[in-house]
Amino acid sequence: QVQLEESGGGSVQAGGSLTLSCSASNYTYRPFCMGWFRQAPGKGREGVASISRGNGVTDYADSVKGRSSISMDKPKNTVSLQVDSLKPEDSGIYYCAAQIIGPCGLDRIYSYWGQGTQVTVSS
Questions:
Q1: Where on the phi/psi map is residue 85: left (φ > 0), alpha (ψ -120 to 50), or beta?
Q2: Which residues 6+ apart lie within 8 Å of 84 measured at CB?
Q3: Before 41, cis peptide (omega within 30)?
Q4: DSSP 3-state assignment of 45?
């Protein structure tokens, strides 16, 4: 069991930046992989970025590569996602996800999910 709580969503103008944070708590085993996924209205959920607690290896979706950064604060068990040069197509509900074991990556199955935080990018 892992409890995840996201924060940092909101409304942003296109071209702006946003930082999302996710805190993990109430776990028996500390999450090894953590990631961010998003879902736009009428679309399926897609991976945005993930990070490994073990070696810090990251994985980014092509849609955000080069303008986003995921980081992990190990002592605090938090993961943050910064996205720059925001576009309207970045809008959606952003979900934090975690997995106890690796390997990590956006193509892996994540067992634990947060409630999500809304991001709206206006043009």
A1: left
A2: 17, 67, 68
A3: no
A4: strand
